[in-house]
Amino acid sequence: MKGLIAEWRFKYDAEKNVYICPQKHELKYSTTDREGYRQYQSDPKHCAQCPVLKQCTRSRNKTKVITRHVWHESKEWVRANGKSKSGRYLYRLRYQTIERSFADAKELHGLRYCRFRGRQKVQQQALLTATCQNIKKIANILAKRAGS
């Protein structure tokens, strides 16, 4: 929200599994919601007397809540890996490998539209399409070996 203290200013302490606010008070773990976000809440007794309460939260019960996904560490690792030299190199190769495979499936193997209805039948169509693509790759490799 505009005008509130940014969430990144609250530091996470992995050992204690708490967030520490800029005023050095702990936001303790309270629950995990259905989407996989852990909720950390401040103690309303501390917040009621806090000098920066107006910049911290607009909550009526004077409680600051911060959410953190259960896979937060993994997401950070992926983000850092994507910024590394090897990560940037591999991402540039993506369009040649993965994206190309999906494009071929759509253009050459009829995966642009599903022929059937229902999750199981659509999954069967996708698996058969992938099988066809793999058979073509094997045939091309064997043809190259026979030619050389």
Mean pLDDT: 90
Tell me the strand order in the biggest sheet: 1-2-3-4-5
Shape: elongated
* Regions with little confidence, pLDDT below 50 for 5+ residues: none
Query: Total strand count, please?
Result: 5
Helix content class = 40-55%
DSSP summary: helix tally: 5
Cα Rg: 26 Å
Strand content: 15-25%
Order of helices and strands: EEEEHHEHHH
Give the termini distance in whole angstroms: 65 Å
Short description:
The chain is of the alpha+beta class. It has helices at 44-48, 53-56, 72-83, 85-108, 119-147; strands at 11-13, 18-20, 26-32, 37-42, 65-69.
Structure report:
The chain has 148 residues and is an alpha+beta fold. Among the domains are: 7-70, no CATH class; 109-147. Helices cover 50% and strands 16% of the residues. It is built from five helices and five strands; from the N terminus they run ββββααβααα. It has helices spanning 44-48, 53-56, 72-83, 85-108, 119-147, and strands spanning 11-13, 18-20, 26-32, 37-42, 65-69. It has a five-stranded antiparallel sheet with strand order 1-2-3-4-5. The longest helix has 29 residues, at 119-147. It is elongated. Residues 20-138 form the Transposase DDE domain. It comes from Paenibacillus naphthalenovorans. This is Transposase.
Key words describing this protein structure:
148 residues, alpha+beta, 5-stranded antiparallel β-sheet, 5 strands, 16% strand, elongated, Transposase, Tnp_DDE_dom
